[in-house]
Amino acid sequence: MSRTHAHGASTLPTLSADTILDLLRGQGMRITRGRVAIISALLAAKAPLSLEEIRVAAGKRARQEPLDFATVYRVMETLEELKIVQKIHLGRARSHYELVDPHAHHDHLVCTDCGKVEMLDEPCPVEPLERKLRRHYGYAEVKHSLEFFGRCPDCQ
Amino acid sequence: MSRTHAHGASTLPTLSADTILDLLRGQGMRITRGRVAIISALLAAKAPLSLEEIRVAAGKRARQEPLDFATVYRVMETLEELKIVQKIHLGRARSHYELVDPHAHHDHLVCTDCGKVEMLDEPCPVEPLERKLRRHYGYAEVKHSLEFFGRCPDCQ
DNA sequence: AAATTCTTGCAAGTAATTTGCAAGAGCAAG
DNA sequence: CTTGCTCTTGCAAATTACTTGCAAGAATTT
Question: A5 and A51: one domain?
């Protein structure tokens, strides 16, 4: 049912459970209950999730016993290496994770009071500077992490 | 020797040990060896420092026994509450700290290989978006955290 | 279905804070 | 310049958030 051009190895496919699972298969990895549940949870997430949140969300979605924490940790570690997810820091003790959508980068707005996280639907303003870091500073594989913090209307 | 306009309560003073210590005094806090050493170390730092780095740097600068880790932790906690320093995340396990200079905001460029951190002397490109978050999103006290990651010329 | 190899759960191990508490040290008052 | 009041510090223990070792379990291949 995937609408992606499955044969074009270098084209960036649309984000879906199928394309992600295919990517895992392509790496010789196995499609397990846990991985399917985690990917499903990430796709449904409206905000970045912590490991514990992923554990709970994945369990609910798959209607199965929640996965072990270490398992979630290792699955996320793997997905991060494959650049399917990225770890982000929201000013909290725990790290949070979200899917990397190659078609739509977005930054975050975090309420410092209630902790609510909004995914910003605004054009990211740092691309030009990123280019400059490549060209004039000579850095390669430049990425960035941009988070905004403030008190949301409800918390004022 | 301070060149600041010490009487203007609301003007943002130039960053110096004196102005920072005055700020602490104003809060009824005491000027201790440790705090002086830590502030001195932060002023001299060319990059954000971890708690352990602050501990060592402060000890050297003050030519005294290094402070206890818990002490450094609590001093930095205090300085952060007073908005004199800010904690930043450089993609490592430990947090790093740096002084907040009200006159010159800067972002960071981190080498993902050797860990080198450059303080970017480029105009920060997110001010307009920050304004929009205040005006259209209704957020107050909006700040941001922007870090770039890449492989530096030496590491390629 | 059996063999092969990747994955998982459990438990133990680390790293980085974070906290409790009694001893020590600023600082104002005398 | 000593005393007293509190704020601070050092030490040690407690927490939090990962991170890893290993044997049992589950995908895939044959």
Answer: yes
Domain count of the fold of chain B = 2
**Whole-structure pTM value:** 0.89
Query: Which residues of chain A neighbour B129 with C-beta distances below 8 Å?
Result: 122, 125, 148
Identify the domain containing residue B60 by its residue range.
1-102
pLDDT > 80? residue A62: yes
Residues A5-12: contacts with CB under 8 Å, at least 24 apart: A12/A102, A12/A103
- Give the end of a domain, one of A104, A125, A142: A104
Whether residue A18 sits in one domain with residue A76 = yes
Residue B64, CB, less than 7 Å from strand C?
Answer: no
Burial of A123 (0-12, 13-18, 19+ CB in 10 A): exposed
Q: How far is the CA of A95 from the C1' of D14 (A)?
A: 22
What CATH number should be reported for the domain holding residue A58? 1.10.10.10
What is the reported pLDDT for A14? 78
Q: Which of A8-17, B7-16, B24-33 has the lowest mean pLDDT?
A: B7-16
Q: Is B139 on the interface with A (CB under 8 A)?
A: yes
Number of A to B CB contacts under 8 A, please give it. Answer: 101
Residues of B in contact with A91 (CB under 8 A): 145
- Return phi, psi of residue B100, to 5°: -90, 115
